[in-house]
Design brief:
The complex is a heterodimer of chains A (305) and B (275).
Chain A: H1 2-12, H2 16-20, H3 22-53, H4 69-75, H5 78-109, H6 116-128, H7 131-141, H8 148-155, H9 169-197, H10 201-209, H11 214-242, H12 246-251, H13 263-273, H14 277-285, H15 287-304
Chain B: H1 2-30, H2 34-37, H3 53-61, H4 64-95, H5 101-113, H6 120-129, H7 136-160, H8 165-172, H9 177-188, H10 190-206, H11 209-214, H12 223-230, E1 232-233, E2 236-237, H13 239-259, H14 261-274
Helix pairs in contact in B: 1-13, 3-13, 4-7, 4-10, 4-12, 5-7, 7-10, 8-9, 12-13
Classes of the chains: A mainly alpha (305), B mainly alpha (275).
């Protein structure tokens, strides 16, 4: 009865009333600081980024409108094309490694082990500590002369001569991939662990009664039930890795000979080091399609859940 | 038993070594004197003569105390701001019905996904026109943009898990909506509030791109940027000092996190499941 009266009253009044009822006003008041900050420091800069990317602005000069000039120029620039390639190699290989190792690590952490909480906490360390500082440590570990990684590998007889970790295009890419995997793995493992803990034990007990092997239990029970968490974590990580900056910036600066240059480091170099702000903004904006794809997939996925 | 050692403990130990070795290396490098640090003959995985020289140099010759203070100041303030605005927005989305609520929820979610490297170039201009460039206030203003969406989403989940009955009773008894939120709901959401504030603190403490772009004066830098930019002079790497400084920059978040580890793990898992 009350709800019918409510519906009638809102239909009878002008639409404006819906915005002015006390509950709505309280709502607007509560979200206003967040909305204000997001408009001024997120939406506006984004519009500005699009605008600047359509100009040939350099540091200290206003520049003029050149339509898609920057984008067309970039698509013919071999350095930029290499950056695109590097970004894909970097993202695909690290996300794949983190996913694979993350599932294994989550399964291990889900076992009955002593000091379980301590172990889980220690595993999270690489993800908690400031990345710029831990990557500095990796830079020292990969030092051309004093690399402790080489020291250990040589000592253990696993390699016969020093690996030029950051000095060689191939190994530099390997290095940034290792460090990114190191940093991101905890997030994957702990998220997957949370997913694992929601799977009811009875399912495994039933499977055991049916005589299903461990591997088949994993394939037919664990993996399908873990799939939603895996999908969300992979999507998150894809966009963050694609847009990553600090690991490459500190470890290789994009080198040697641009072998590890990725979108964000190139945008930084072009816009803030070389001062070609228009072109730099255009490079940054190439991250946008990737972001869009991730958002669409994520929304589709979450809506289905 | 042997099966468990080979199948669980051994691989787990390998993961632990992989995760922790860099921190061990950071630790022992910062307590070595230079001759030992750069000796190719010594046992490099151990310290023969522990010394505090690197720390002494760091405090005597660099502005490290100022950088640590800047990091604390910015992280504390931004965590507090984001927590407050996140509580407000999270409560509105969890409890109130108003036109545009869904659109706002979607917008915060998308904002959460936007990487800082997408907009740091124009944002530098916005910061400049606000008169904040080269000041830690540039960070205080910009960090909440990526912290608020996180706190909001985190807290929506917490608020939704609290039954509505109690605040409805309070409101029937004459409490206002905001009064009910502050007196009834907030105390019950304390774990979520602490978690989001702590996480905000950690994210601010670790932030790199904005701090690198907006600040150029030595004395205004935060730890995460000051150590890699100020302590590497040209091509000269003073690894002892660098590692000692990295250690000092890592310990606060590691400590914070070890005190509240249970909150962290439960919050993270709750967030991951709902995210």
């Amino acid at each position: 009865m009350a709800s019918i009266a409510h519906v009638e009253s809102t239909q009878a009044r002008p639409w404006l009333r819906r915005f002015l009822k006390p509950e709505a006003l309280t709502g607007y008041f509560l979200i206003s600081p967040a909305v204000f900050l997001m408009l001024v420091l997120l939406a506006y800069p984004f519009v500005l980024a699009v605008w600047i990317s359509l100009t040939d602005r350099v540091l200290g000069e206003p520049g003029k409108f050149i339509w898609l000039g920057n984008f067309l120029k970039l698509l013919q620039d071999s350095l930029f094309l290499q950056t695109v390639w590097n970004s894909f190699v970097y993202t695909i290989s690290t996300v794949f490694l983190k996913m694979l190792l993350g599932v294994i690590l989550a399964l291990l952490l889900n076992q009955d082990i002593p000091c379980r909480n301590l172990v889980r906490g220690l595993i999270l360390m690489p993800w908690i500590v400031p990345t710029s500082l831990s990557v500095l440590t990796w830079l020292w570990m990969f030092d051309s002369l004093f690399s402790v990684v080489n020291y250990i590998l040589l000592g253990a007889g696993l390699i016969s001569k020093k690996i030029p970790w950051l000095g060689d295009p191939f190994w530099a890419m390997v290095s940034v991939i290792i460090v990114n995997t190191w940093r991101g793995l905890p997030f994957f493992a702990v998220s997957f662990l949370a997913g694992l803990m929601t799977i009811p034990r009875e399912l495994y007990e039933a499977a055991e009664v049916d005589g299903a092997l461990r591997f088949r239990q994993f394939w037919h029970i664990t993996l399908p039930l873990l799939q939603p968490v895996i999908a969300v974590v992979v999507l998150f990580s894809t966009i963050w890795t694609f847009a990553d900056f600090q690991i490459v910036y500190i470890l290789t600066h994009g080198g040697p000979i641009n072998a590890t240059q990725i979108f964000a480091t190139m945008a930084y170099d072009v816009a803030l080091v070389a001062g070609r702000i228009g072109e730099g903004s255009a490079i940054s904006l190439f991250l946008f399609p990737a972001l869009l794809v991730v958002i669409i997939l994520m929304l589709k996925y979450l809506r289905r859940e | 038993m042997l099966k468990k050692v080979l199948g669980v403990y051994l691989p787990l130990a390998a993961f632990l070594v992989f995760a922790l070795f860099p921190f061990y290396w950071m630790l022992i490098s910062s307590f070595k004197a230079n001759p030992e640090l750069y000796s190719l003959k010594a046992n490099r995985l151990w310290i023969a003569n522990p010394t505090l020289d690197q720390f002494r140099d760091l405090f005597a010759k660099t502005a490290i105390i100022k950088w640590l203070w800047n990091s604390f100041f910015v992280s504390f303030l931004t965590a507090f701001i984001s927590m407050t605005f996140g509580i407000m927005a999270g409560y509105a989305l969890a409890r109130l019905k108003f036109p545009g609520a869904q659109a706002f929820g979607l917008a915060t979610f998308i904002t959460y996904l936007v990487p800082t490297t997408l907009i740091f170039i124009p944002l530098a201009r916005v910061v400049q026109s606000l008169g904040l460039s080269n000041s830690i206030w540039a960070l205080v203003v910009t960090y909440p943009t990526f912290l608020i969406p996180f706190c909001t989403w985190m807290l929506i989940a917490y608020f939704k898990s609290i039954p509505k009955d109690m605040e409805e009773c309070a409101m029937i008894d004459g409490c206002s909506r905001i009064g009910a939120m502050i007196r009834i709901v907030l105390p019950m959401a304390i774990p979520g509030v602490i978690f989001s504030a702590m996480f905000g603190f950690t994210l601010s403490w670790n932030e790199f791109v904005y701090a690198l772009t907006f600040i150029s004066d030595t004395t205004h830098k935060t730890m995460s940027v000051a150590v890699p930019t100020e302590l590497i002079r040209g091509d000269a790497y003073f690894w002892g000092e660098l590692m000692a400084a990295s250690l000092l920059g890592s310990v606060p978040v590691a400590l914070l996190y070890s005190f509240f580890m249970d909150y962290f793990v439960s919050g993270l898992t709750a967030g991951a499941l709902k995210g």
